[in-house]
Design goal:
This protein is an alpha/beta fold. It has helices spanning 47-55, 94-99, 109-122, 138-150, 168-183, 199-205, 236-249, and strands spanning 4-13, 24-32, 35-40, 62-67, 70-71, 79-82, 156-160, 191-196, 208-212, 217-224. Helix content is 31%, strand content 24%. The chain has a 10-stranded mixed sheet, with helices on both faces. The longest helix is centred in the C-terminal third of the chain and has 16 residues, at 168-183. It is globular, with a radius of gyration of 18 Å.
Amino acid sequence: MAKPIINVEEVSFSYDSKSSAKVIGDISFAANEEEFVSVIGPSGCGKSTLLRIMSGLIKADEGKVLYKGREITEPISEIGFVFQDFALLPWLTNLENVKLGLSRSRLDDSEKEKRAAKLLQQFGLKEFDDAYPNTLSGGMRQRVGIARAVASNPRVILMDEPFSALDELTAETLRKDVERMLRSKKIAVDSVIMVTHNVEEAVELSDKIVVLSDQPSHVKKMREVRMKYPRDRHTKAFQDMVDVIERDLGRSK
């Protein structure tokens, strides 16, 4: 039986500590080992904020997030983060950006460099070690961002709309590459939690989908997606699941 690796327990949050108006109302769910979880909900419901609370970057007003039973109160090396806007430092080379993911590692500098170079090779960027991010396409920059997130061998990857800044063709290619990489265990990750606004994307990648309400957000539904990988968007089963999530969101036609 799969064990929870991340537990979100009755988390609530308000941007203004003096206000009683909450963005996140009362959210609880778990992400198990060997599970890809997507969190989806209306714009402004606090999805990205929730992810930052889970990473330890933001403190919840109430409730807590546990990693393997231990409360997360600050960023930890066991949890990696992939940002929507890549968040690469333009004055560093791609290799140096990936090495930032090893800043807390006890490896010496040469070992860090070897690890970063190997990851860039795995993500198809072997020839771009010494290039700068502004010379890369959006998809390539996000590959660098993902490589940085997994550099420290985290057990959990948090992804904040990682494909939304890309054109659809690039996003489709990168989704498939990330899925193959994670599920083939070329990267030793136990769980992935992704925030997205894209229903088709959630159905394509996820084992479980957490559907949030409008703010103050709470969990409206949790849906398991049991289709085999890789998933074909043109099948009836896929479209039926998309329709289910759309109805959960209140977007039914």
